[in-house]
Amino acid sequence: MQPITPPNADPTVVVCGSIHLDTLVSVDSVPPEGGTLIVDDGVNSLGGKGANQAVAIAYDGVRAVMAGTVGEDRAADFVIEELNAHGVEVHSINTSWDLPTGSAFVATNKQGRPVIFVQRGADALTDPTDFTDEFAAADIVLAQGELLPEATEAIASVASMHNVRLVLNLNPVTVATPALIDNANPLIVNMKGAWETLRRLDISEGILATDYKAQIEALLQYCPSVVMLRGEGGCLWAEEPKDLGQAPTIYQQPALVVPPEKLVDATGSGDAFVGTLTAELAKGSPLADAISLATAAGAAAVQAVGACAAFAPREKLLEITQREDFPAARVYEG
Predict the structure, then answer these.
(1) Which residues pair with 104 in a beta bridge?
(2) Is the pTM above the cut of 0.85?
(3) Strand partners, 47
């Protein structure tokens, strides 16, 4: 596949979301309930879905502005320095004495699969109305589900007020209302998140939890486009048809297979995907091209410890999409 050259050469994405100090450990397996596991090493790393996705945007060559809240502590110094080092603008990060910087504990097993515990901390104080000027000047505002539910709703409201495109990675699904979903273009959810979103919208009746085609079709009644992340199964995606009487075409983008010996840590794969997808959309790329590059970003991100450690620049991602083993998208029949 030859990606279309994006028409917008100098876009800006404002990421309003979580900023964490992650503590990363590697384990053979997670202990059972009541058990204790002693680890000999731990690594501090930048984390939080918002921060991770902002880094992925910067790696794609797009201006990334981080809007969020940290505490007045050493963890804040660390994460702001890391964001700076990765090319993310930090002038819109607020600080507070009331709560510490958000944190997460990430334990990854030998198969590269993480178990994550998050302490929201100062993320709970993030008020999107503090960043109205930043939203108004952006090409895209990107949000996730790690802020308080009312903050996620406010992000959509402020973006809509300024007629700015919202990309919503609703993970976790802490809130799902018609007003929120209507503003998402695209709405990005995983398989469990899609079902939970339908349930909260009260439109899940008659739809099987494994009928992903029907779920996407139902979500397209609310928003212009939907991307469903499926882990090792790649993703499904669709846009609302131009003819409202026509059924939407749902596409499947298979994941690029990563050999087991190269699979190190899947922690940042989804964030690499979402950030790269958003950056490409900000440049004006079609959704199909953006998903291709995002798939390459997700595959690259699992090959080192930590969410941002293996994020790759756009040139590397383009090389990956040109490889013979890079899977082509196809129509999904269900």
Answers:
(1) 22, 118
(2) yes
(3) 20
